[in-house]
Amino acid sequence: MRMIDESRFQILRSTLMSIAVSVLLVYLALRQGLRPLRRVTDQAARIHPIDLSIRFPEDDAPRELRDMVSVFNAMLDRISLGYDRLSQFSADLAHEIRTPVGALIGQTQVALHRARRPDEYQQVLESNLEELNRLSHIVDNILFLARADHAMLDIERAPLALDDELRGIADYFEGPAEEAGLRFTVRASGTALANAPLVRRALHNLVVNALRYSRPGTTVRLVAEPLQGGALIAVENDGAVIPAEQLERLFDRFYRADATGARPAASSGLGLAIVKAIMALHHGEARVNCSASGTIRFELRFPGGEGR
Prior knowledge:
Helices cover about 55% and strands about 15% of the residues. With about 300 residues, the chain is an alpha+beta fold. Helix 3 (about 65-110) packs antiparallel against helix 4.
């Protein structure tokens, strides 16, 4: 019995020592194995809106976590891009609003500096009204873009005769085109499954843009044709050559391709952004390209169209 008791004690002691050593080895192994994960955690703690350039180390991550780290890095790239665009949008918005507000303040201060005749006050009020209308237009466009981005409006769509729509647009802008020394040609067929008021708004913005930047004596071409499973509308005009790096940003809000700032004051820089938002609501796509000769072509591609 004494031998059995001693053996039992030795076995128990050996078992406890084995468990302790095993626990220690497992702890050391886990600590060593999770060291890359701790580095990822340390990197994540450093990420801040002021500095979104930090990325997780993919090479040091455990093999099982590399896919997850890669996905997180891609997510950070998208967040950084969105944050940069939001910052630029805020700066551009402040710049756009500052100009008419400054004009309103300046004109009002000059008018109040001394007593004036009624007709002079009327001129000031008419000028202020123009600036207020510009502010109202900017606000309306921003609200539309906000609803399109965040609420994703549920729009009603119906077959839209493209030939009738484009000829109606050409007739509407015939007067401004003649004043600018331009003319229209229309070549259209087929239908598009779309929301008519939104499509007209997008075409209105594209045609206004074409009239503003076309060379005098050239033709603005309105084209529509059915595609397989959809429809295409294109607006072409001849103007100055746009570099490729500027083409990629034409649909950005407040972006101005003309670095000289020659855009007329009536433009808020939101027209093409609204076109892109309208196409997103249709689950379609807006494209732009420019040839070496300066032919600029905007394309609206609608899904679910029907040929005729």
